[in-house]
Amino acid sequence: MKYSLLFPKTQKDAPRGAEAENHKLLVRAGFIDQLMAGSFTLLPLGFRVVEKIKNIIREELNETGAQEMLMPLMHPKEVWNETGRWESAKEVMYQFKKDDKEFALSFTHEEIVVDLIRKHNIKLSDFPLKLYHFSTKFRHELRAKSGILRAREFLMKDLYSAHLTQVDMQKYYEEVKRAYIKIFKRMELSVKVVEASGGVFTDKNSHEFQVLASVGEDTIFYCDKCDFAQNDEIAKVKAGDKCPTCDGKILTSKAIEVGNIFPLGTMYAEKMGALYTDEKGAQKPVWLASYGIGPTRLLGTLVEIYHDDKGIMWPKSISPFEVHLVHVEDPGTEPTVQKVYDALIEKGIEVLWDDRTNVSAGEKFATADLIGIPIRLVVSKKTGDKIEWKERSGEKVELLSFEEVIKRLE
């Protein structure tokens, strides 16, 4: 991709009113644009990052046997009335009336997936069911002031599983928990698996995946030696206490929630009539669990964790491009940089080439630092027949041959 063709270009100043670093940097670097409070456009660079996040999630969920689909965003009131959540979840839902009929915009999809299950003649051999989708969610967020971390309209991955028994549900619940840890590790995020309340989703305790961060809006308590961790909503410990499961010490921190999993039990199936017939002919409700990860929230979280005073510092697995190629405009170097660009593309390497003319080297380097692609390559009169290699996370500069560049990238 040539930077001269990329929409939009970087901005010098942060948007007015932006408080969170992810909001400031993602807008300045051209990854997102704010339409209104809590509502953002994913611009081409931001879209590329989110697609890479989605692909990591997709790969790990597919390994568990989950199948991808896509459910509607506009829901009739009737289906929400069946579980009572039209009223109990009214504060977070966007509800509206059209032609004497009432609807809601999706803030979650438990009712919709249960409706799907009960409509089909599901045999015993079809269980467990593992269905997921990536879709937009709408939630009435009162504090939409943390950039894309806390939005009113955002992208969510929902996975729903249906089982014949609680034992089978719990088995898959633990499998997804392990898959989530792998997902976040691939993005270079260290997470705490934290016990939490079920909120508006279930009356049972759930688990959240929290990234320690001073800008986080959650407070968690965790052990310095074992995996014990609780959200302050349900915590029975405080900082300095002895861990209830080992001899470790309880610490506390602010954190950003990047994922959650809920053991829903049989409540939704009982209220909505999602039943199966067992071997003896008796009808029983299916056991359900749900599992969420917010790709757009991850976009913001990664920037909060990986940035410096110059800009963003993307982990390699989700960077919008693998390489940022900079051409320092010297007479006679144009054929060389074009050759390097073409050769990188031919090797299947994703390249953003700052091909702008009449722009200083300093401005191009500042643009590269702000956008945050892990590897910066420079072609100039000074580099001669070699290429300057610099990693965004360090200060070391090396001169390498094209073959050495390719070897490192591979």
Determine Rg (CA atoms, Å): 24 Å
Shape field: elongated
Q: Which strand-content bin applies to the residues?
A: 25-35%
Give start-end ranges of low-pLDDT stretches: none
| Helical coverage, percent range | 25-40%
Overall structural domain count? 2
Task: Give the helix tally.
Answer: 11
Class derived from helix and strand content = alpha+beta
CATH A-level architecture of the largest domain = 2-Layer Sandwich
DSSP summary, beta strand count: 23
- Strand count, sense and closure of the main sheet? 9 strands, mixed
Describe this protein's structure.
This protein has 410 residues and is an alpha+beta fold. The protein is 29% helix and 30% strand. The chain has two domains: 3-308, BirA Bifunctional Protein, domain 2; 321-409, 3-Layer(aba) Sandwich (Rossmann fold). Strands 3, 7, 8, 9, 10, 11, 12, 13 and 16 form a nine-stranded mixed beta sheet that branches. A five-stranded mixed beta sheet has the order 20-19-21-22-23, sandwiched between helices. Strands 4-6-5 form a three-stranded antiparallel beta sheet. α2 packs across α6 and α2 (44-63) packs across α8. 39% of the residues are buried. The mean pLDDT is 95.
